Amino acid sequence: MAMEAADEERAPLLQPQPQPSRGDADSEYTGDGSVDVNNQPALKRSTGNWRACFMILGVEFSENLAYYGISKNLVTYLTKILHESKVNAARNSSAWSGACYLTPLFGAFLADTYWGKYRTVLTFLPIYILGLLTLMASTSLPSSMTSSDAGHQLHSVAVYLGLYLVAFGNGGVKPCTSAFGADQFDGGDAAELRRKGSFFNWYTFMINSGSLLASTVLVWLQDNVGWGISFVIVVVVMAFFLAVFFAGSRVYRYRPVRVSRWRQCTVTQVEEVKMLVRMCPIWACLVLFFSVSSQMSSTLVEQGTAMDNRVGPFTIPPASLATFHSIGVLLWIPVYDVALVPLARRATGKPKGITQLQRIGVGLAVAALIMAYSALVEERRLAAARAGAARTSILWQVPAQLMHGMAVVFTSIGKSEFFYDQAPRSMRSMCTALGQLAIAAGNYLSAFLLAVVASATTRGGDPGWIPDDLNKGHLDYFFWLMAALLLLDLLLFVFCAMRYKGSTAAS
């Protein structure tokens, strides 16, 4: 059975059976060409739908628990444990996050061309776990070893080896879980089609559930107990959901991978390439949005370290403020799904209330507000610090985190729907990875902007905008720069969206 489950997406049907026409909701078989684990036409009553998605969503939950368990506090780890400067730590954190969203291109290529989504996830999850085990081992190096120059270098190599093994393993998981989950709903069945629309919302819900636990439980453990215990937890959770994912092999619906789709130029492929090209301007406009997301776990964390993080008897780690981002997402998803969509549907007559591109545009506008608000908070913090007054409370960052949660519900989920729905059927993993590539590009753009700002503002012995002592810098100038760039990006996005020609779901 295991071999069948690994190969069913790759092999064409040996004896095709008659399929019901698309849109035949009363048929007992799916109408989209999907097959079951035995490579036979998939029965609606025993395969797919939410029963299969729950197991796929478990993998996504564990992956995000691990990813955010690292990324939320990575800047702090690099500065306090590896003794990197604030600029270098922010840059290296952004570069690693970018790698996590760049490797999905490779995983998506394997999934769409050779292995199928199921087998790709099953292959790359153990690599992800190996990276976590490497990080766990790096935390157990004795202090006597890491105190010397050679030991410090060995420690750094172990940390970055583990980080980039995680990034590589992520490459086979990230593009396939969302596309494989959406494949569990028959596009020809109106009821299942509506459920597929909700799937992307609840997919993001699981992402942020993992992020919420990482920002609270794991960050607290890292700051108060040690990083090693946090890695033990994520390894156990991911291994459990890997077993659950494999156990669900018989209830999944699989899309057969057509042989030579990428190796011969047909008229259909030419049209598919045109579809990809039409999506590129929209993709480019998303990059800056994800640069803002990168700031939430880098420069805003550094800002938090210069603020008063005491709330009553409690001390809040700056990285834990991301909890409010996750809370914002978890609150906005049901509000959007249950309240906003029905209201917008009545106003516009559109099945989803607003189009995917309109949804993305709302999030871009909110992102500009986040950067403007963060600049104002930094101005307030600097004024208090230079006047010798009491330090500004870290709770001033909470509105920015909540607004970022709202922006994610609009732009990130809109992005996922857009790249899945607008993709050619044979390239959905690749187009999902294209959406992830925007996140990678956003992280690399963030690293590039930080490097340019550091270079341009530290000439002549000046401390620059983002020195190690933020009280001597102007982090607010950097936030205002990001806000201005986002406003320009929003105008460009509106221009591109008005000219986009795709399916009615998008435009």
UniProtKB/TrEMBL annotation:
It is a multi-pass membrane protein. Gene3D superfamilies: MFS general substrate transporter like domains. Residues 1-40 are annotated as: Disordered. InterPro entries: MFS_trans_sf (IPR036259), POT_fam (IPR000109). One of its GO terms (cellular component) is membrane. The chain crosses the membrane at residues 121-141, 202-221, 227-248, 282-301, 321-344, 356-374, 394-413, 434-457, 477-498. Keywords: Membrane, Transmembrane, Transmembrane helix. Its main location: membrane. GO terms for biological process: transmembrane transport. Belongs to the major facilitator superfamily. Proton-dependent oligopeptide transporter (POT/PTR) (TC 2.A.17) family. This is Os10g0111300 protein. It comes from Oryza sativa subsp. japonica (Rice).
